Amino acid sequence: TEGVRIPVAPSFGFCTILDVSGTGVTAQEITVGLLKHRIAVIPGDGLGDVGCADYLRLNYSSPDLACFEQFRVALPKAIEEAKEGRYASAVDAFFAKAGTERGAVIRKRLAPRSGSADRLVAAE
């Protein structure tokens, strides 16, 4: 999928990290989109501050080709939906309520699609 890469090739274990920074949307927006397509991933803010809006953790502990195919089809759809701004306002509202520094980083990335740019400038 365009804009998505695997920064470190997995050599063992049951999960991998996807770098979605090249998609133009946040990992949080893609996470919501994937949930709409019945796929659960962990967005980067659950993994720490570095790349909090850029990474998704994908667990494949029960490898099933049908699941991989569903993910292959759903990922570009979720990214396109996020680019349309479908999830930005809800994700922005969640992080506004949380009031964390990490949430502020994510909200700045969301601002062009969520309409929060004016609110963020006023708050600073």
Give an account of the 3D structure.
The chain is mainly α and 124 residues long. Helix content is 49%, strand content 10%. The chain has a domain at 15-87: Aspartate Aminotransferase, domain 1 (Alpha-Beta Complex). Strands 1-3-2 form a three-stranded antiparallel beta sheet, with helices on one face. Helix 1 (27-36) packs across helix 2 (65-83). Residues 118-124 have low confidence and may be disordered.
Brief summary:
With 124 residues, the protein is mainly alpha-helical. The protein contains 5 helices and 3 strands; from the N terminus they run E-H-E-E-H-H-H-H.
Cα(first) to Cα(last) distance is: 36 Å
The shape, in one word, is globular
The computed structural class is mainly alpha
Task: Output mean pLDDT.
Answer: 87
CATH architecture of one domain: Alpha-Beta Complex
Taking the sheet with the most strands, its summary is: 3 strands, antiparallel
Features:
mainly alpha, 3 strands, 124 residues, globular, single chain, three-stranded antiparallel sheet, Aspartate Aminotransferase, domain 1, disordered C terminus
Structural topology:
Blueprint: E1 15-19, H1 27-36, E2 42-43, E3 55-59, H2 65-83, H3 88-98, H4 101-114, H5 117-123
Helix pairs in contact: 1-2, 3-4
